[in-house]
Write a structure and sequence with these properties.
This protein has 90 residues and is α+β, with helices and mostly antiparallel strands. Helix content is 27%, strand content 19%. The chain has a 3-stranded antiparallel β-sheet with strand order 1-2-3, with no helix packed on it.
């Protein structure tokens, strides 16, 4: 992936929690779709075109997987199970 060349105009924060989920939808006749659900809001991640995959799509999917893995590891490290089952940030 190339470095961002434009400045961010806005930021949307989507908090995980009860009901948040990520689901991959592979389709036999089109490219896959990744769905991120946050209660009443859903984000669909798709490829550039619905009928083909580009090298940039593959690079982004790999980057997404890598960063999602890093995020999961950071969340796991920050969580310490307590008797109340809530945990605390380290």
């Amino acid at each position: 992936m190339t470095r961002r060349r434009t400045h961010r105009v806005s930021i949307i924060t989507l908090n995980t929690g009860r009901g948040a989920r990520a689901t991959s939808h592979p389709y036999p006749a089109r490219t896959p779709v990744l769905t991120l659900d946050f209660g009443a809001l859903s984000v669909l991640v798709t490829t550039t075109a619905g009928d083909q995959v580009t090298g940039a799509d593959v690079a982004f999917a790999r980057q997404l997987a890598h960063e999602a893995d890093r995020f999961a590891r950071s969340v796991e490290r920050s969580f310490h199970g307590l008797a109340n089952g809530r945990g605390v940030a380290a």
